[in-house]
UniProtKB/TrEMBL annotation:
One of its GO terms (cellular component) is signal recognition particle. Keywords: Cytoplasm, GTP-binding, Hydrolase, Nucleotide-binding, Ribonucleoprotein, RNA-binding, Signal recognition particle. Residues 269-282 form the SRP54-type proteins GTP-binding domain. This is Signal recognition particle protein. The lineage of its organism: Bacteria, Pseudomonadati, Pseudomonadota, Alphaproteobacteria, Sphingomonadales. It comes from Sphingorhabdus pulchriflava. Involved in targeting and insertion of nascent membrane proteins into the cytoplasmic membrane. Binds to the hydrophobic signal sequence of the ribosome-nascent chain (RNC) as it emerges from the ribosomes. The SRP-RNC complex is then targeted to the cytoplasmic membrane where it interacts with the SRP receptor FtsY. Interaction with FtsY leads to the transfer of the RNC complex to the Sec translocase for insertion into the membrane, the hydrolysis of GTP by both Ffh and FtsY, and the dissociation of the SRP-FtsY complex into the individual components. Composed of three domains: the N-terminal N domain, which is responsible for interactions with the ribosome, the central G domain, which binds GTP, and the C-terminal M domain, which binds the RNA and the signal sequence of the RNC.
Length: 296
């Protein structure tokens, strides 16, 4: 994750730190390199531009350059700006309601939505001792409901029994009733995906959201698709009130552009990162830790 960016920035900052005194030109030169590094990491252009402007302004405007360790100070300013870019506020799930709390999972087909549903269910069960019920509302893709049931068995989380022919909104209603009657703390609704964003997908998703009024609507996107992931998030957030994003396949993403641009472009926090195919390969997304990792 972020390997290339980390290497590039490491080089820039080693040079900055290595010099005793810095002048404005040194900072501007370094920031030009930071901008190139961000763009190579596939960060959206306006996001990279704003980042560099903000950091430059702080670095040359304050007493940073006159300080004893100007290089160090600049790196600190970059670190803070990175944390802000990644979304500084806490990204915990909001499940503090009368049970069942409902988490609705949305996204395109192949993004890792069903796997992520099972991963989060496992996390909630093991880390927070929640009693979780999962239900698949995907009636379009053959075997989608069976796939969730299989994953449920693997992570030892209950799934709603399948009733052939039932439509998504009705499955959601049945799931809500079952969760309430059987005392589940959390209900996870895995909605249908499509290969592309289309109106039918959006309409179905809105109908389910209106019925279930979930506490969390999490969009699952593939980080390997880079800026496309950000565009998909933008599209979805115009249709439903997303509460957060899960970025999958971060394990294979050396660039990290989607993670770096997501918050600035969509205003939505990244809540989790998928880091592998195994069902425990998921991490809560903490901007400070990620920034720390990038800056080594
Ligand atoms: P869906 O169509 O969006 O429900 O996608 P699936 O959940 O069926 O996932 C598609 C494929 O992506 C599966 O082979 C998953 O194991 C894989 N996958 C999901 N999340 C991750 C991840 O974070 N890292 C890696 N390497 N693979 C993942």
């Amino acid at each position: 994750m972020f390997d290339k960016l980390s290497d590039r920035l490491g080089g820039v900052f080693d040079r900055l730190r290595g010099r005793g005194a810095l002048n404005e030109n040194d900072v501007r030169e370094a920031m030009r390199e930071v901008r190139v590094a961000l763009l190579e990491a596939d960060v959206a252009l306006p996001v990279a531009r704003e980042f560099v402007e903000k950091v430059t302004e702080k670095a040359v405007g304050q007493s940073v350059l006159k300080s004893v360790t100007p290089g160090q100070q600049v790196v600190k300013i970059v670190n803070d700006a990175l944390v802000e870019m990644l979304g500084s506020d806490a990204s915990e799930l909001n499940l503090a309601v009368a049970p069942p709390a409902i988490i609705m999972m949305v996204g395109l087909q192949g993004s890792g939505k069903t796997t992520t549903t099972a991963k989060i269910a496992k996390l909630l069960k093991e880390k927070e001792r929640k009693k979780v019920l999962m239900a698949s509302l995907d009636v379009n893709r053959p075997a989608a409901q069976e796939q969730l049931a299989t994953l449920g068995t693997q992570v030892d989380v209950a799934t709603l029994p399948i009733v052939a022919g039932q439509q998504p909104v009705d499955i959601a209603k049945r799931a809500m009733q079952a969760a309430k009657l059987q005392g589940f703390d959390v209900l996870m609704l895995d909605t249908a995906g499509r290969l592309h964003v289309d109106q039918q997908l959006m309409d179905e998703m809105k109908a389910v959201a209106n019925t279930a009024t979930p506490q969390e609507i999490l969009l699952v996107v593939d980080s390997l698709t880079g800026q496309d992931a950000v565009n998909v998030a933008q599209n979805f957030s115009e249709q439903v009130d997303l509460t957060g994003v899960v970025l999958t396949r971060m394990d294979g993403d050396a660039r990290g552009g989607a993670a770096l641009s997501m918050r600035a472009v969509t205003g939505k926090p990244i809540k989790f990162a998928g880091v592998g195919e195994k069902l425990d390969a998921i991490e809560a997304f903490y901007p400070e830790r990620v920034a720390g990792r990038i800056l080594g």
